[in-house]
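Posted in: Protein Modeling Q&A

I'm a second-year student putting together a small comparison for a lab meeting, and my supervisor asked me to include a predicted structure for Integral membrane protein. I've never done this before, so apologies if this is the wrong subforum. The sequence is pasted below exactly as I got it from our records. If anyone can share the structure token output, I'd also love a short note on what stands out.
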Amino acid sequence: MPDTPFGRYPGGLPGRHAGRPAPRPYERSFRCPSTARRRRAEAPARRYQEFVALHEEISAGSRLPLRPLWWAGTAAALAAGGTAFAAVMGLRGVFGLEVPVFAGGRTAAGPAATSYALIAMAGTIQATALMHLLLATAARPVRAFAWIGGFAVVLLTILPLLLNGPFDAAVATACVNLVGGTSVVVLLAGVVAAGSRPFWPDRPFRRGRP
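Accepted answer (user: helix_wrangler)
Welcome! Here is the predicted structure, written out as tokens:
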């Protein structure tokens, strides 16, 4: 019986015996259906295990430290607002510095301190929301937040020095921004780094890892 690409016939595929030419490319593409099914059954199960693990992670809900993050962010916002208010009242009352420099010397101490405290609280809440967003989207959220937060702190430190006003008030405002912004960035990054749980321990690049 002549050789055929499918079926269990004697002689095998063309080109299998000595003296025959090598099989052509289109001939090598033919396979027995039973062999193809057997090869698919012997495929590695790692991809299926990873798919099941990912499905279980999604079904189980978020394992990200969102609750500690927002608790820490709220506490940091209140602390930043109180510290900014106290710093403005102290620097204006004790040293006579027109802090913050953007408020000017004509603004009373109370309104200037209140506006600065509200800005500090709003900035801290925005930083917490940014960390929440990075936790949901970035592979290394703590590192990304550190870069973005560091750039923001540098910008907030330099910006008062570029405004028109007394130089001593500008320096004092820049110092307050530097200390407050650095404290917020370090606090939020530390809370997330302490509460993050790696999903795939055998992989160096994983979602949700600091």
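A couple of things worth pointing out for your meeting: The radius of gyration is 32 Å. Residues 6-13, 198-208 have pLDDT under 50 and may be disordered.
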